[in-house]
Hints:
Blueprint: E1 12-15, E2 18-21, E3 23-24, H1 26-43, E4 49-53, E5 59-63, E6 65-70, E7 73-79, E8 93-101, E9 122-123, E10 131-135, E11 138-139, E12 141-142, H2 158-175, E13 180-186, H3 190-194, H4 199-202, E14 204-205, E15 207-208, E16 216-217, H5 222-238, E17 243-247, H6 250-258, E18 269-270, H7 275-284, E19 289-295, H8 296-299, H9 317-327, H10 332-339, H11 344-353, H12 357-375, E20 381-388, E21 392-396, H13 400-416
Parallel strand pairs: 10-13, 11-15, 17-18, 17-19, 19-20
Antiparallel strand pairs: 1-2, 3-16, 4-5, 6-7, 7-8, 8-13, 9-10, 12-14, 20-21
Helix pairs in contact: 1-2, 5-7, 9-10, 9-11, 9-12, 10-11
Amino acid sequence: MTKQRMTCMEEFVYKNHKKLRYGYTTGSCAAAAAKAAAFMLLSGEETGFADLMTPKQIPLHLEVVDVRRGKGSVSCAVKKDGGDDPDVTDGILVYAEVSFVGCEGQKKDGPFQPVEEETHPVAAGTEAPRIFIDGGRGVGRVTKPGLEQPVGAAAVNRVPRRMIRENVLEICRQFGYEGDLKVVLFVPEGEALAKKTFNPRLGILGGISILGTSGIVEPMSEQALIDTIRVEIRQRLAGRSKYLLVVPGNYGMEFLEEYGHGCLLEDAVKCSNFVGEALDAAAEFGAEGVLLVGHIGKFVKLSGGIMNTHSHNADARMELLTVHAALLGAPVSLLSRMMESVTTDDAIGYLKEAGLLEPVMERLMERMDFYVNQRVQSSLELGVMTFSKVHGILGQTKNASKLLQKIAEESIAKMEGPI
């Protein structure tokens, strides 16, 4: 990659035969705004740009807008650029206000107007000068345990905090300032945008999170979604849950509600296509058991050890259904019709007509059970339940009913309050 500075991203990646432009994260916006505000506070001068080196080692030269001076403070904003990634935060302004804390160690002859430190800032570092980081309007606040930041803290993740602290300290060293500074981030559109994110579900209230591990937004990044799934699993297990209900998406949620398990929906974790990564996270964060509930169109792939169920990764739906039917002696005419089926519902319909659905599903569930346990090396109790929108419940592994009961008991216990 080239190392040129840019006001908008000019780096590209190719995904699915398309040329897509990189963007930069809310964390990079916050760090750049904080750096520019610190510069203007300590120098008394104006600046229209902030230079920033991201953790991905791509340098940014970002425009600073809406500069405002107060008594002992300066605020400014940087506009988020999500590149070609579908991102609800694209185009928003991320503000940072930098202000003095106390009078200790100020550089002589500087234009400093110190103000008192607020009661409960969130410290990002302990060295002198200390940089205190907090969130204001439109930045979410953590209300549930299990997230990267503690309950009560602003939803500003670890890497953005480090970026902010390092860049503000760079400005402090440049001007010989040895006192403390406070950085407050705010996003005017944040509270409204948060309703379109996972934040309310995760217990982050009042706004968006300031995120980013690399400082750069990679278009159509799978890792961003995997990170979200991991956060949700860790949070569930940090509460009173030992057992997880994991579904790929809305079909699984609708199935649970239709079959009388709607009370479990609030605690269900959506894993999208990343079944394997969800199981990895469950094992890593100490789950005792996981029940996977999903449509046969995705879950038939588990019987072949395919743990990323996206069609771009692998298909093999008809092949897996057909080979197990063949092993049970199905005639070639049936196998041919199954292989030519467009949907799994069609293929299952043919099996049902031939009286082979139950034995085929029994074989498939055994293979699903084998592969999910292999993924986690049998380190936790696993169950799989699969269904069809047309044909209803199709099969479940031996532990599925027991796990469903344990998950229901945990749900009831939570509703009844602390034990």
